[in-house]
Amino acid sequence: MSFFKTLNVNDNNDKKSESMKPEERVKCLIIGSGPAGYTAAIYAARANLNPVVIQGMEAGGQLTTTTEVENFPGYPNGVTGPAMMEDLKAQAQRFGADIRWGEVTSVDFSERPFKLIVDNNQPYKADAVIIATGASAKYLGLESEENFKGAGVSACATCDGFFYKGKKVAVVGGGDTAAEEASYLAGLAEKVYLIVRKPYMRASKAMIKRVENTPNIEILYEHNTKEITGTNVVTGATLIKRKGQPDEEEVKIEIDGFFVAIGHKPNSDIFADFIERDDTGYIKTIPGTSKTNIAGIFAAGDVQDPVYRQAVTAAGSGCMAALDAERFLAEQE
Fold first, then answer.
1. Last residue of a domain, one of 233, 260, 287
2. pTM for this one?
3. CA 276 to centroid of chain Cα atoms
4. pLDDT cut 90: percent of the chain above it
5. How far is the C-alpha of 67 from the C-alpha of 185, rounded, in Å?
6. Three-state secondary structure along 65-77?
7. Based on the number of CB atoms within 10 Å of its own CB, is 251 exposed (0-12), middle (13-18) or buried (19 or more)?
8. 54 Cβ partners below 8 Å, 6+ apart?
9. Do residues 272 and 245 share a domain?
10. Which whole number is the average pLDDT over 284-297?
11. What does the pLDDT look like over 291-324, one tens digit per residue?
12. Could you tell me if 114 and 164 lie in one domain?
């Protein structure tokens, strides 16, 4: 089954074929340029696999939207997310990784060598592919939320919670992730507001009990976020409390940080016709490896990790993927 949507035989075929560039054959193609992708590139390059890295729409991954990173080994004084990703990129390039702009727009993993097209016009054939496309945090879609990203708005309490030690924060969400984030932040912050849209939480009973029994967590049921407020950084939020249809009440809270915990979407849709995924789209890998259901296709980082979602775990799985790819290719020779 082919997934070459850009190469369908139709009236536009001649026009598309004219713009198609010459096909490139590579030994190891890495899709994605976050900690997983760049670490895979470092290991693959050192193993003489001559990896080509397709950076994707967000070069450097989610960490490029993070201001300070203090929990990645090797940076005793912390580092900004963009600076760390530039360090990883430079290290990969030092060993010969070929890092390119572009987005994979279609794939065909039905046979080896695997076929991929980048930016609708650059075809590749690859003997091994490492998928490190990450996962995108879901946001509320507020304009004010977008304005304060990296200045008080975060989607990762483990990443950014330390900066709010002794301060007031809010977490929005009603599932296990929101409960876990609120519990984690409660150990650091003076006060945690847990904003829940519905009159109940979707989290497990154990997690609900935990947040309910944590003194500095206040659960605000039937509240929706209207706006995040502040000047250069977050200083508050305006909420809408439902009092019963059609009555509503505007509520203002003073906070220093606003954490969105309504889930992540793994960037795996393009591989759906070939790669096995779970119900939410995370790529399934054989436990203890980076191997997918297709020999020669490997997955690393947040695209296959619904649990930890940390830069250091992504980097570790990138290492695993490169080693698995190296062994796979050696067996094929």
1. 260
2. 0.78
3. 18
4. 77
5. 18
6. HCCEECCCCCCCC
7. middle
8. 29, 30, 31, 32, 33, 100, 102, 103, 104, 118
9. no
10. 98
11. 999 999 999 999 999 988 889 999 999 999 999 9
12. no
Cα separation, 298 vs 275, in Å, equals 10
Within 13 A of 152's CA, how many CA atoms are on the CB side? Answer: 24
Radius of gyration of the chain (CA): 22
Segment 183-236, tens digit of pLDDT: 999 999 999 999 999 999 998 899 999 999 999 999 999 999 999 999 999 999
Whether residue 227 sits in one domain with residue 171: yes
How many Å apart are CA 149 and CA 238, to the nearest integer? 17
Count up the domains in the chain and report the number. Answer: 2
Q: 298 and 254 in one domain?
A: no
Is the Cα torsion angle 194, 198, 202, 205 positive or negative in sign? positive
The catalytic site residues sit at 156, 159-160
Q: Is 266 in a helix, a strand, or coil?
A: strand
Among residues 260, 281, 306, the one where a domain terminates is: 260
Neighbours of 302 (CB within 10 A): 29
C-alpha distance across the termini of the chain, in Å = 26
Return d(Cα 54, Cα 32) in angstroms, integer. Answer: 6
Domain of residue 245, CATH code = 3.50.50.60
User: Which domain covers residue 74, as residue numbers?
Assistant: 5-136+264-332
**Cα–Cα nearest to 44, from 331, 321, 316, 298:** 321
CB-facing half-sphere around the CA of 185: CA atoms within 13 A: 38
Cα–Cα dist 103/86, whole Å:
19
